[in-house]
Design goal:
Elements: E1 2-3, E2 9-10, E3 12-14, E4 26-28, E5 51-60, E6 65-72, E7 78-81, E8 84-87, E9 90-95, E10 102-106, E11 118-123, E12 131-132, E13 138-146, E14 152-161, E15 164-170, E16 181-186, E17 195-198, E18 201-210, E19 219-225, E20 228-234, E21 247-248, E22 254-258, E23 264-271, E24 281-286, E25 291-296, E26 300-301, E27 304-305, H1 313-320
Antiparallel strand pairs: 1-2, 3-4, 5-6, 6-9, 7-8, 9-10, 11-13, 12-13, 13-14, 14-15, 16-18, 17-18, 18-19, 19-20, 21-23, 22-23, 23-24, 24-25, 26-27
């Protein structure tokens, strides 16, 4: 369940009764009065006659719920351009539990003022699900297509703010301070959300491309603010707090966590001279001023040393890294 700003519990419940299929129908209702919030087959707010067909997920956010839903009927339409089928049959809604759920964005929506320019092809869920900032903006990751030709433009991370959509970072945008290196996509993380918000910063685990980028250094944690990107950690980069030559193992940078203050933590394995199975994993913390090695396998603390982190990386994320 989610808790909205007015402290009304909104549990996700299975619908029962006449016209409801317990296997597929999902109802979301405030605990106080229990009115029907949304249900498959009911009109989708913000559309012209479309109805909810199914829900891809119900994502808890900062005080609200998000629905990423499939639509049918009404104004649902599709076009075939350049061999690609583009449709407006998916939408993203935010629900405070107090008013009608608000349509945030929808596939086939234009991303610029040019109606034949880039449009939304896919809205991501899972670890790349939309998030809400403390100021009520919504951050979402999409695949973009050029409406005029159907050509894929790759991924883009966007911000919805009071009805205005603007880019945060999109494929081929340059990475500040790294000549020829560009953003390619947001990475899927098995252990954590991939996208985080703090103040005016967006922090994400990303895939890089461009000059000098290889499979050993193409994963990074980026902090983005007004088009400027800071690399907090990157595969093959000297690992903070370790001997010279010990670097982050590219594919293991994960379990990112960011607190509202902007402080962050992540997990990675190490490689290089002196790295063994007894000391090859660490947890790093930091903020916009500095980064530190907080814990490492083999680290001595008093009369003891760290033998393991008590399970897999997901346990570290869930139980050891708190809100900093």
């Amino acid at each position: 369940p989610g808790i909205n700003p007015a402290s009304v519990a909104i549990p996700a419940q299975v619908c029962h009764g006449t016209g409801c299929n317990p296997q597929t129908n999902v109802v979301v209702m405030p605990e106080s009065a229990s009115p029907l919030r949304i249900q498959e087959g009911t009109p989708a707010p913000g559309t012209s006659g479309a109805s909810f067909l199914s829900f891809e997920n119900i994502k808890s956010s900062i005080g609200n719920l998000f629905y990423l839903a499939q639509l049918t009927g009404g104004d649902v339409t599709s076009i075939v351009v350049g061999g690609n089928t583009l449709s407006n049959a998916t939408g993203l809604w935010r629900d405070t539990g107090l008013n009608t759920p608000q349509l945030i964005t929808r596939t086939l929506d234009p991303l610029t003022s040019d109606p034949n320019g880039p449009v939304i092809g896919t809205i991501y869920s899972g670890s790349k699900s939309p998030i809400e900032t403390a100021t009520g903006d919504v951050i979402f990751d999409v695949i973009r297509y050029l409406r005029s030709t159907g050509a894929s433009l790759g991924e883009g991370l966007y911000k919805w703010s009071s009805g205005i959509v603007s880019p945060i970072i999109v494929k081929n945008d340059p990475i500040t301070g790294l000549t020829g290196v560009t953003f390619n996509s947001v990475l899927t993380d098995l252990y954590s959300n991939s996208i985080w918000s703090s103040g005016n910063d967006i922090t994400t685990i990303a895939r890089l491309a461009g000059t000098g980028v290889t499979s050993s250094n193409n994963n990074a944690i980026l902090r983005i603010n007004n088009g400027q990107t800071t690399v907090l950690a990157r595969g093959g980069q000297q690992a903070v707090g370790t001997p010279v030559g010990q670097t982050y193992l590219n594919s293991t940078i994960s379990a990112l966590r960011v607190a509202p203050s902007g402080k962050y933590a992540f997990v990675a394995r190490l490689q290089g001279a002196g790295v063994t199975t007894a000391n090859n994993m660490g947890i790093w913390t930091g903020d916009n001023n500095a980064q530190n090695l907080a814990l490492r396998l083999g680290m001595v603390i008093g009369n003891y040393y760290i033998y393991s982190f008590g399970g897999d990386i997901s346990n570290i994320q869930d139980y050891q890294i708190n809100d900093l």
